Amino acid sequence: MAKPASRQFAFLLLLGNWALSLPSAPDYLQRGWQRLLEEGENCLSCRPEDCPSPRGCLAGAVRDHCDCCWECANLEGQICDLDNTNHFYGKCGDHLECRLDAGDLRHGEVPEPQCTCLSNQALCGSDGKTYAQICKFQEVLNARPVANLSVAHKGPCESEPQIMSPPYDIWNVTGQDVIFGCEVFAYPMASIEWRKDGAEMLLPGDDPHISVQFRGGPQKYEVTGWLQIQGVRVTDEGTYRCFAKNKVGEVTALASLTVLTPEQLNVTGLTLPQPPNRDFEDEAESEEWDDYY
Ligand SMILES: *[C@@H]1O[C@H](CO)[C@@H](O)[C@H](O)[C@H]1NC(C)=O
Ligand SMILES: *[C@@H]1O[C@H](CO)[C@@H](O)[C@H](O)[C@H]1NC(C)=O
Ligand SMILES: *[C@@H]1O[C@H](CO)[C@@H](O)[C@H](O)[C@H]1NC(C)=O
Q1: What's the longest Cα–Cα distance across the chain?
Q2: What local confidence, expressed as pLDDT, does residue 22 receive?
Q3: Which of 14, 69, 89, 275 has the greatest number of C-beta atoms within 10 Å?
Q4: Is the pTM of this model over 0.85?
Q5: What positions does the domain IGFBP N-terminal occupy (predicted)?
Q6: For residues 75-102, average pLDDT
């Protein structure tokens, strides 16, 4: 039976660069080469009693290329044999499949087959932690068999809102536009409200120079809110609150806005980071907003 071309190629590489390549080669390649060296010796008769017992296999165990001994299966994201055999790069573990994903390749990159999880359904573990899918859960389970971890339920664990990125304190000169952002993770998804300290009213209220926006993301189960104040006035100065809430809990993050008049700016001796060049400012502004839609 003819050998696959890739194996012959690797074998030549092995002979040609033995001393140079082997020590620094990635694990999966070393494993392939190891297999080439062993080939023809081992597969004649299987002696299970001579097999080492694999330990700490995070993706479970599979039979080796001779279909004899057990060895660690490949993890999510590791390179694998596309024909689902265990001949060169290895075989994917439980709940994983070897797939060629040419999806997000940079120019000139050659697609590599990778172990890909068959599920993308999040799970809630008995430890109260959310796992992106069964494969991630299985890795943790296999890493700590004594931890008595189990699946509590499908879907993420319920979680009170957590601020992933808070609004930051801002200062600027009257007439400029300012934006506060607030990124929140929660399950179920949180709602976000903006308020100014000292005023109970929910923003934007009926103030035409204030606007708010919300969007899901950037990560799963996150929502991001923005508060924009156009043409800031001295009266806008104060502390602003991002208030996020779901049925499990709530969280608040504060940030202050300091508004200087051009005269005050002169006195402090501070300078604005950008020169007062209208064209440039307009451009920067529109770029910034593009991200929000
Ligand atoms: C493991 O967890 C189950 C429930 O999740 C419990 O009934 C059992 O007693 C636990 N076993 C140990 C050894 O902690
Ligand atoms: C003031 O606002 C302008 C326009 O929004 C912005 O480009 C600039 O970086 C801000 N200055 C400071 C000090 O934050
Ligand atoms: C800022 O100070 C300079 C001199 O230091 C003066 O010429 C200029 O008019 C001042 N600008 C404002 C807006 O007060």
Answers
A1: 90
A2: 41
A3: 89
A4: no
A5: 39-118
A6: 87
Rounded distance from Cα 176 to ligand 2 centre (Å): 7
| 8 A C-beta contact, residue 71 and residue 64 | yes
Q: Which residue has the tokens 């390649």?
A: 29
Tell me, in angstroms, the distance from the centre of ligand 2 to residue 164's CA.
Answer: 23
Nearest ligand 2 atom, CA 179: 5
Nearest to 48 by CA among 72, 68, 73: 68
The reply to whether 56 falls in a domain is yes
Helix H, strand E, coil C: the string for 198-228 is CCCCECCCCCCCEEEEEEECCCCCEEEEEEE
Q: Label residue 201 left, alpha or beta by phi (over 0 means left) and psi (-120 to 50 means alpha).
A: beta
Report the CATH number that the domain containing residue 73 is assigned in CATH: 4.10.40.20
**CB of 267 closer than 6 A to ligand 3?**
no
In a domain, 223, yes or no: yes
Show the domain range for 27: 5-101+112-117
Alpha helices in 233-293 (DSSP H): 262-268, 278-290
pLDDT at residue 6 greater than cutoff 60: no
- Give 123's strand partners: 131, 154
- Say if residue 188 is preceded by a cis peptide, omega within 30 of 0: yes
151 and 164 in a single domain? The answer is no
Tell which phi-psi region holds residue 67, choosing left (phi > 0), alpha (psi between -120 and 50) or beta.
left
Q: Is residue 106 part of a domain?
A: no
